[in-house]
Write a sequence for this structure.
């Protein structure tokens, strides 16, 4: 993940409304950092989910993902 651009997964409006429900305000200076922290957490969790997929253990494809579809049993490993 070094020097990798993390996409924007989180919308600030959803964050603000969630904090408001808990009666917490966010300063304008803190909003970008909160979004950055949450985007990083989502990005890391997505990679963790991908890591649960079965991988080839032998041959030329060793280490490559066998199946590209995430199934419920993959998520139960988390």
């Amino acid at each position: 993940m070094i020097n990798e651009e993390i996409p924007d997964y989180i919308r600030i409006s959803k964050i603000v409304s969630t904090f408001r429900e808990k009666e917490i305000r966010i300063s304008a200076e803190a909003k970008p950092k909160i979004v950055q922290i949450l985007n990083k957490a989502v990005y890391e969790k997505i990679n963790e989910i991908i890591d649960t997929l079965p991988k080839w253990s032998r041959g030329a494809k060793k280490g490559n993902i066998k199946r590209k579809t995430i199934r419920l049993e993959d998520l139960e490993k988390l």
User: Anything to note?
Assistant: Residues 28-75 form one domain. The first helix runs from residue 12 to 21.
